[in-house]
Amino acid sequence: MDEKTPINAKITVRIAPDKRTAHAIVSAPQNGGRNPLPDEVSAALTEAGVVFGIRPEAVHLLTGSHDYGKQELVAVGVLPVKGTDASLAFHFTAEKELKPREMEDGSVDYKDLGIVTNSKAGDILATKTPATEGTPGTNVLGEPIPAPSGKDIALPAGSGTKISEDGLHLEAVINGQAGMVSKRVTVSDVFNVEQDVGVATGNIEFLGNVRVKGNVLAGFMIKATGSVTVNGMLDGGKVDAGGNVSIDNGLNGGEVISGGDVRCKFFQNGKISAKGSVYVGVIIGSTVRSGEKIAVQGAKSKIYNSTLSARDSINVINVGTEGHSKPVILEAGSDPELTLRKANNPKEIAEAEKKLISIEMLYNAFAEREKRGSLPADKIKDYENIKLTREQLQNTLAQLQIEREEIEENMASMGYGTVIITGNIAEGTRIIIGAEQYVVPGNDRFVRFRRDQQLGIISGPAK
Hints:
There is one protein chain. By secondary structure, the chain is α/β, with parallel strands linked by helices. Helix content is about 20%, strand content about 35%. The strands form eight sheets. Strands 15, 17, 20, 23, 24, 26, 28, 30, 31, 33, 35, 38 and 39 form a 13-stranded mixed β-sheet that branches. A ten-stranded mixed β-sheet has the order 16-19-22-25-27-29-32-34-36-37, with no helix packed on it. The longest helix has about 35 residues, at about 335-370. The chain is elongated, with a radius of gyration of 43 Å.
């Protein structure tokens, strides 16, 4: 070739190993040769397979004057976009900051510190936002670049929970306290208090069972739908349980309401009401009511200055007085709940009758105007509401009157419980069985009291 023959610039295209970029190198023209033409640039890229992400300025860059032999970026692919990771949102507070609850009127309830977060069966405890698929990229050869999907995450289901059918929600399957145990969401039907129930904890209100290692102090309360166990004592506090109540070290100046049985070493200056049975060793200055039976037993068993009432039976060892204390009252064959209903029923009937009289006056006034055709259209709705209220009150009153008759019948059929004293019984002790009463005339021992339909309360040796 003649040394003076013009040699045009040449284009060399280099594609990166990952195919995500392409560069071009233009050799310098010789002997008066020319730079590449636009068509030549396009042809070189096409021949190299570069069909995607070509920079708009690439052709101008390669056809104009520039640094020959330098790599110029001519094409850039689109990078893939990774999908978003799955995420969890929790709908309960695992870590609690105990602080008094502010009331609507601006005052503060220092006994409500929010120590318990109750969850009900069916409550959603956590929600999962699913991971998304990634968006694929494209390399300079026009080939797709796979995109990784977001990382999935499992709902941390623990005991007392379940995952919803759509896999997006974690639900409680029992009532109780939601929390994190070993990085899993759990719902426990037992709430453990490792200290006294007092100023450090505030009141406890829980949908389940409560166990207290310490005491329940004066002015503070435990309210539970299940059972309550207190390892210490009820020292002036209150326990209201839907199930059984067990107090290891006794009750001193407090109150227990139980939907089941009550067990305690001693009751002093307290008030106990149980739908089930009551088991205790010593009762002093207390009122005890049981929907089943009361058993006051133990080597040091005694009852002073107290009133005991049970539907079925009262079984005690020693019943006596100390100094000038009031005589003990032992009442069997009565239902405390039924007695309460008997006391409340007349009040409820009177209240319903009072309301019905008032609504009847309105009803009669509206009915008269409707009869004359002078009831305005805008009062028709009021008239309908009055009629509905009147009907509801009539039904309520009828039910209360039926209840009154049922209470009387039930009360009449009761009164056949027994009172058994297997130790000493002091003079002046009052025995009540049904409608009959008997005052023990002198100190006695080993006596069983029962009611005879003709003779009233009769006594015999305890067995």
